What does this fold into?
Amino acid sequence: MALQEAQRSVDCGGVPHVMFIPSAGMGHLLPFFRMIAALYGHGAVVISVVTVLPTVSVTEADHFDQFFEKFPGIRRVDLNLLPFDAAAEFLRRHGPPAEHSSIVICHYPPPTYQSLTRAQRRSIMALQETQSSVDGVPHVMFIPSAGMGHLLPFFRVIAALSYHGGVEVSVVTVLPTVSAAEADHFTELFAKFPGIRRVDFHLLPFDAAAEFPGHDPFLLRWEALRRSAHLLGPLITGVSAVITDVTLASHVIPICKDIHVPCHVLFVSCATMLSLVAYFPVHLDNNQKKKAATGGVGDVDIPGVRCIAQSWLPQPLLDLEKLFTKQLIDNGREITKADGFLVNTFDALEPVALAALRDGKVVPGFPPVYAIGPLKSHTSSTSNDNDDKPAAAGSPVACWLDEQPVKSVVYVAFGNRNAVTHEQIREIAAGLESSGCRFLWVLKTTTVDRDDAAELADVLGDGFLDRVQGRGLVTKAWVDQEALLKHPGVGLFLSHSGWNSVTAAAGVPLLAWPGGGDHRVNATVVVSGKSYNCLELLSIFLKGFANDCT
Ligand code: UDP
It folds into this structure.
């Protein structure tokens, strides 16, 4: 009721919202289509239609297609049915079945799994067992979050699993995505791996702009996903295992526990950051017990890992009221109940953090942690691909790099969703210009790529592009960064130290200029074992680079 209220006031601007839940068979569907068309023509009403795909008959599928094409304003609500071995059940009860005639829609909107009776749960579990013994193929469902830094590692693991074979893979997909880059990459994934099942997931209405004005759109998407996560139960039911993102952990893990589906977290940052996420709630509880009079969060001394100074924490964590902080604390408390962690790192890079997590020093009884990094690009995962050959060969940026001397170019990039202010852009531009270095700068001026309408020349200031012509290239386009980093022309990487960028930069000197999120923690890993501070690092790298170039 509250949701309906919210939807009425938020989504539909006071317009009523009618949801049609038709059944199967053309005799049932046609009257629905007619009724819906009439209502649509009448206007002043939001309409959604619960749709089960694939339909029983081709005719039904054709009619659904035509219908949604004709009335694009109607919202299609995809419903995935619970597993139901109709053939076996009806054969037992009634002899030969009448073709598929009794598809049962269990619940819509799906209730939380908790609201099912014990008998219902038992029958679902029995169906799961039937399904696995019939198919004999494990089915892994991925529930990723949002933002390219979160999606790319998922796509890489999904691609690796799909190449490996012997497993059915489905991917919970929320469309439209926040950014165009995410949409492009989803399209590419499903085109490249047609065997992967796309499970469309529709979010509940959430007036993010009103509730959290001015917040990062990706953080808001995480929140929207979290608020709709209870609807995932029926989608998850029947799968062999779930792999989800840490941003959704506190909502997805309990659902999986409830239906006895193993749930792993694919952690897209470093193991040190994982130890911080796991330990941060304990740190706050300890502060509470000590009634710490400091008033602040303070340095976080992660047992067995390292002490992270307050100034090196993700800065939103200093304010416990921030949405990011609340999400992180919730997730941090719940992740101890996951069945395991897959982390994009490797033992040689983070031996201390991995050992502390595995030995239960960070949090006693912490689930198993598997270091599966560095993850290989999903665009170059075929066994035939030659790892040394840059996949970006032939792109305009790669062609430009081809013309530059070996190890002469500073590659400057700050990830996919870290907008640099115009003031900073001018400062960086001035620095690059006066350094005399060759450079390739992948510039993002907005958090969401779709909002980026600025002209390069305007952002960079009068004459900059002319003055650096030949030795400097600036682009706002999406580039295949991993491939570019393998290009022999690149000699130094100036990075915001997003974890994917750091791990892809192996072999290229990295100058870390950490921004928000986990960047500072990642930067400490980059220099792990050393006691450099940022300025020392900067001078070390620049000195080395200048020597190399001369
Ligand atoms: N990326 C890319 N091309 C671009 C921008 C970003 O390939 O034009 C990739 C980059 O290689 C990395 C990811 O997007 O894999 C960004 O993740 P990261 O953890 O480095 O930073 P975030 O954007 O999450 O802060």
